[in-house]
């Protein structure tokens, strides 16, 4: 067993679950969070319960992890609420998606970053949908806006902590067959996530923020 330790936020299903499993397969020690207790993850994974949008639960998780050291902190959790034009999006829906997809991931990083070792990696699952320059097709306006906000907040985070020595990554995994991506998406997480982990491992120890796809290519902002 490697002494490398990863914390994956949002691993009860989809990309996060496959990511946690792939890290275990490569010999990482993995702690993963799920929103509710009792989620079935591989027995090698240490499971913590976290509703990411609840600051009290996040603070409690930080206390439980006190003394641990992380080589990788990866925030995966995100939601989508359908393909409404922005003029039809209720205020409550806008708030929910923005909090979950943009605000809460950065709260996680701010709360847990001191657990990441010098030279460790802080990463967030983003999407090319958050690229402003590549927004050339209609649809999914709220989701796109939330990922663009996430990217901007991550840019601010990386500027504020430019000298902390952490590798900082925004990852675009592509359009995958998950609850969020839908059953007809062109990519299978079992093929995608090993490539994502390749990118994480390749760029470990290279400080500065990068927005990369699953092949390690730069995604335009």
Entry keywords:
alpha/beta, 221 residues, Rossmann fold, single chain
Give an overview of the whole structure.
The protein is globular. The protein is 36% helix and 19% strand. Helix 1 (14-25) packs across helix 5 (189-203), helix 2 (55-64) packs parallel to helix 3 and helix 3 runs parallel beside helix 4 (141-160). It has one domain: 3-Layer(aba) Sandwich (Rossmann fold). The chain has a seven-stranded parallel β-sheet, with helices on both faces. It has 221 residues and is α/β, with parallel strands linked by helices.
Compact summary:
Helix content is 36%, strand content 19%.
Note the topology:
Blueprint (H helix, E strand, L loop, with lengths): L4 E5 L4 H12 L3 E6 L11 E4 L5 H10 L5 E6 L15 H22 L3 E10 L15 H20 L6 E6 L16 H15 L4 E6 L8
Parallel strand pairs: 1-2, 1-4, 2-3, 4-5, 5-6, 6-7
Helix pairs in contact: 1-5, 2-3, 3-4
Q: Briefly note the structural class of the backbone.
A: alpha/beta
**What is the topology, as strand order, of the major beta sheet?**
3-2-1-4-5-6-7
SS summary, helix count: 5
The major β-sheet equals: 7 strands, parallel
Radius of gyration, in Å, reads 16 Å
- How far apart the termini lie comes to 38 Å
DSSP summary, beta strand count: 7
Order of helices and strands: EHEEHEHEHEHE
Number of domains: 1
Shape: globular
Beta-strand content estimate: 15-25%
Provide the helix percentage. 25-40%
Uncertain regions: pLDDT < 50 for 5+ in a row? none
Q: Provide the CATH superfamily.
A: NAD(P)-binding Rossmann-like Domain
User: What does the average pLDDT come to?
Assistant: 92
Query: What is the multimeric organization of the chains shown?
Result: single chain
From the 3D structure, determine the CATH topology.
Answer: Rossmann fold
- Return the CATH architecture: 3-Layer(aba) Sandwich
CATH class: Alpha Beta
